[in-house]
Amino acid sequence: MTKAEKENILKKATMLFAEKIAVPHRANIEKCADPEEFSINPFLQGYLAKLLCGDTTPRSVAMSLIYPRVLGTSITTTFGNQIQYFCSEVLDGYGSRIPGLDLEFIDSVDKRRRYCQLKAGPNNLNKDDVEPMVAKFRSIINLGRTNRSTPLAFQDLVVAIAYGTEDQLNQNFRVLREKHHLTVLVGYDFWYRLTGDKNFYRDLTLAFARAAEELDTEGLIEKTVNALAKRLAK
Q1: Burial of 219 from C-beta contacts in 10 A (0-12 / 13-18 / 19+)
Q2: For 14-18, what is the mean pLDDT?
Q3: pLDDT in tens, 212-233
Q4: Average pLDDT in the 16-29 region?
Q5: Is the pLDDT of residue 50 over 60?
Q6: Could you tell me the sign of the dihedral formed by the alpha carbons of 61, 26, 24, 215, in that order?
Q7: pLDDT at 145
Q8: 158-171 residue pLDDT tens
Q9: Is 227 within a domain?
Q10: SS3 annotation, the chain
Q11: Residue 146, burial from CB neighbour count under 10 angstroms (0-12, 13-18, 19+)
């Protein structure tokens, strides 16, 4: 990867964060002013409010509902949903020619051509998704053998994870590696193998952080908490 190519990817990543992650997340936060957005457990919500804020006022209840949603599940889901867009728009030079796979690249470590499916994080694989993923990879290999257009070895098919470390991999990724002998690349290792740049993973996270600093988020959560508290008090 040249310096210009790297700068172009980082620039696109910054724009992606602002347009495809931050904007939908903001909309999801604003939706939280409506109590119907939540499945409120009346047996637990007072306890959670007391645990978080020290009392059970409508405002405290609103905070106990909103904070886990907007700081946890909502943004994680939004980020995960944008992985495919990231592949096609930001990593367009690495797009795979094989249907069903996200990326295609020369591994900077062993120089093999890799065909890759990209997942967001080290917990973004459910147990029920393991066998279908393995079956898909096998069908891709069989198709390559049949039409001889792109003959592949199983070791050339990899599952890549955008962030995280080896010790954070959930059991389902470990099953892919240990039982089905798939190559699983996570975080730094994936980005280094993809780009050949040992600093790329760090620089990509810094690009997202810079994009976050430029966003106007002042008072957004506070305003939403107050709006929800008013409706809960009725």
Answers
A1: exposed
A2: 90
A3: 999 999 999 999 999 999 999 9
A4: 92
A5: yes
A6: negative
A7: 66
A8: 999 999 999 999 99
A9: no
A10: CCHHHHHHHHHHHHHHHHHHHHHHHHHHHHHCCCHHHCCCCCCCHHHHHHHHHCCCCHHHHHHHHHHHHHHHHHHHHHHHHCHHHHHHHHCHHHECCCCCCCEEEECCCCCCEEEEEEECCCCCCCHHHHHHHHHHHHHHHHHHHHHCCCCCCHHHEEEEECCCCHHHCCHHHHHHHHCCCCEEEECHHHHHHHHCCCCHHHHHHHHHHHHHHCCCCCCHHHHHHHHHHHHHHC
A11: exposed
Q: Structural domain tally of the chain?
A: 1
How is residue 168 written in tokens? 């954070």
Rounded Cα distance, 181 and 120, in Å: 20
Residue 136 C-beta-side C-alpha neighbours within 13 Å: 17
On whether residue 225 sits in a domain, the answer given is no
CA-based nearest residue to 80, from 122, 29, 120, 20: 120
Q: Which pTM value belongs to this model?
A: 0.86
pLDDT band at 62 (very low <50, low <70, confident <90, very high): very high
Q: What is the separation, in whole angstroms, between the first and last Cα of the chain? A: 59
Is residue 104 over pLDDT 80? Answer: yes
- Cβ proximity of 189 and 165 under 8 Å: no
- Which phi and psi (to 5°) does residue 91 adopt? -105, 40
Separation between Cα atoms, residue 157 and residue 142, nearest integer Å: 13
Structural domain including 176 reads 3-213
Region 1-19 average pLDDT: 89
Residue at token pair 């980005």: 191
